[in-house]
């Protein structure tokens, strides 16, 4: 994201932008971003974040007359005097932008419901009794609305090492609509949960000293250091409430800042371009995760695994990866970004051969990365198919993802050519 865009985001004011659209004869039309960063959270009758109606080409969501929706302003500023139940209540569509809130017994215009949160980010975590790969913990980053969990991100989490194996979520073309989102917020976490007795920001503050205690010197500098690396990217979501949930430390293991602003950003942006502008893929499943543990040599040249909690937990991942799966048309590909700015490419090339059978990055004309600079994080791509991965961890994750999405064969890369033609057309 350019400095100009970041500046515009930082300067964006809170505005009310009532949608311009022809009213339905009956029913409601609500803009999910209608009041900018003060739009109330609302869900459809299935208690899900709704997708906009493609007929309008904007962020408008339509409801039939008397159809149920849920409205909330989680963590509202108590001085704001929000007129409905802040934690959420059931409402009914009356007409156009008018709704009736059942618990509060109020009929009002949806755009009068300005939501001012006490602080950001605000999210909720809950666990499942089920397990994910390797018997790891399934944890959800969510909102609790009207007493029900509304899941946003599913984490497969290793509670022993305190490291997410992956984050799983769904994205689509609508995620590009929220251009005024301000991402300049701090990461947070839920105490007494996944991080046990650790306080994440304290661990980050001590990374240089901890590495020196491990006998590893000189790698953290003013220009190269460790930051939280979001697995689920905030701009893969549409609403502020969903985007803010990505600022959970549980979704953000250690990543070198040059990789974070380099090829991890490039991979994320490339996928986002394909989903939002390149071709209509519908709902796309994303799994974004970590693999192996990074090492750096000590003064004697011996590689040292980087566990930064001070007691053998919270490791620096050796790799970050991002798997995208679209069902219609069928497309699946997984990117791998090496999370170490201090290793030459020939060494990383050899390690990648222990992960995947073949690098297909050059086939993907829509993917833009920089493999000339080790600080950016050397990047590779792999076709997705059953048992196509060499690494056992990735093989199990990919096979399970294919099963969940009813895909069994390696999807064709002809779609990449179609997107390339589209790019050429745009340039001409």
Provide an overview of this structure.
The protein is α+β, with helices and mostly antiparallel strands and about 425 residues long. The protein folds into 2 domains: about 30-110, no CATH class; about 125-420, Extracellular Endonuclease, Chain A (3-Layer(aba) Sandwich), CATH 3.40.570. The chain has 9 helices and 19 strands. The protein has helices at about 5-10, 200-205, 205-215, 240-245, 255-260, 265-280, 345-350, 390-405, 415-425; strands at about 30, 40-45, 60-65, 70, 90-95, 100, 105-110, 125-130, 135-145, 150-160, 165-170, 225-230, 255, 285-295, 295, 305, 315-325, 330-340, 380-385. The strands form 5 sheets. The chain has an 8-stranded antiparallel sheet, sandwiched between helices. It has a 5-stranded antiparallel sheet with strand order 2-4-5-6-7, with no helix packed on it. A hairpin with a 2-residue loop joins strand 9 and strand 10. The longest helix is centred in the middle third of the chain and has 16 residues, at about 265-280. Residues about 1-20 and about 420-428 have low confidence and may be disordered.
Q: Span from first to last CA? A: 25 Å
Low-confidence stretches: 1-21, 421-428
Structural class: alpha+beta
Report the major sheet. Answer: 8 strands, antiparallel
Which topology of the largest domain does CATH recognise? Extracellular Endonuclease, Chain A
CATH hierarchy, class of the largest domain: Alpha Beta
What is the CATH-assigned architecture of the largest domain? 3-Layer(aba) Sandwich
Helical content stands at 10-25%
Strand order of the largest sheet: 8-9-10-11-14-17-18-19
H/E element string?
A: HEEEEEEEEEEEHHEHEHHEEEEEHEHH
3D shape: globular
Mean pLDDT: 90
Number of domains: 2
Strand elements, count: 19
Q: Radius of gyration, rounded?
A: 22 Å
